[in-house]
């Protein structure tokens, strides 16, 4: 099986432009794994307050979530180049202002404004990459492989990015770490534009559109709700591991637990991309989420770090496949005229879900401890699985209905 999977991936990467596109995605995705953590630590060093630093990061993420669908709609109507030019200049410039805050005597209020501008104009690299894969592959199997590998790259960014920031903190300072993240943000759009990605984009400025865009489709609303509930559960999980580590008086353990969970997710994504399942994707999603609930619920009863790491790895095996299925369903359900906007709504739900999960998890952790946060994570994913059951799978032998206009 491993030999067949390796052969399949080798053949996939030999397809025209694929290797170059994935190399681009690795570099252009680095900001998502470095900006938030490094900004938090940089602003904390400037202000002496984690509350102020958290507000800056929250402002950045909130502004990004709010404007992503607007940028996505612009791209679907007018193409990607203008949006890339604007976001590729404004967002890095605003981040650079935050980096210079101590040198220019900027007060906290100015940092918040700059964070809001940086988030509002955050380059839609992840969304555009997924839209590009939709257009690059008409073959469903190749598209599934692309989306699975894309999910693995996101996990890589969230693993390698924080690790790099940690290394820079160890040998340098928060300012150096944040400066590196700003540099990644500055090269993200040029890297994307220099790749073959834009060759595959299509847009129709004259296509008839509904005011609500993809939100007018019931199936997409269910997928978005499922994504929000899933990422709320994962946001809770992000709080659970540090809470467990703090209770064990071993703070560094938090990073290891999160990394092990991410490693499991990456392996799950690679496995999912290499195999073909007979089940309709709607059924795959509900089953994958149902499987994820079990290790999350079990984590609430575990007191051993070793067992928690093992169960966290098992939970991770389901995460990237679940996101891959969500992406495939959006690609299938969304008409071409909403191709980019549909993915931006997904990104908004993901960012919002993680933020809500972090906020709820922090409150639960202070009052009840990590076990309750693990249980809340399992409960949120269970509700996501129940939401996914309302998606109707195609009947056996029939072809799934695909929106194409």
Attribute tags:
405 residues, mainly alpha, Growth Hormone, Chain: A, 2 domains
Question: How would you summarize this macromolecular structure in one to three sentences?
Answer:
Helix content is 79%, strand content 0%. It has helices spanning 2-13, 18-28, 30-47, 50-78, 81-99, 101-104, 108-120, 125-136, 140-171, 174-194, 218-247, 253-274, 281-299, 305-333, 339-368, 370-388.
Can you walk me through this structure?
- The relative contact order is 0.14.
- By secondary structure, this protein is mostly helical.
- It has two domains: 187 residues, MFS general substrate transporter like domains (Growth Hormone, Chain: A), CATH 1.20.1250; 183 residues, Growth Hormone, Chain: A (Up-down Bundle).
- The model has no long low-confidence stretch (mean pLDDT 87).
- The chain is 79% helix and 0% strand.
- The two termini are 38 Å apart.
- The protein contains 16 helices and no strands.
The CATH architecture term of the largest domain is Up-down Bundle
Shape: globular
Number of domains: 2
Could you name the CATH topology of the largest domain? Growth Hormone, Chain: A
Q: What is the string of SSEs from the N terminus onward?
A: HHHHHHHHHHHHHHHH
* Continuous helix count: 16
Mean pLDDT: 87
Distance between the termini: 38 Å
Q: Approximately how much beta-strand content do the residues carry?
A: under 5%
Percentage of residues assigned to helices: over 70%
Extended strand count: 0
Radius of gyration: 21 Å
Largest beta-sheet characterization? none
Low-confidence stretches: none
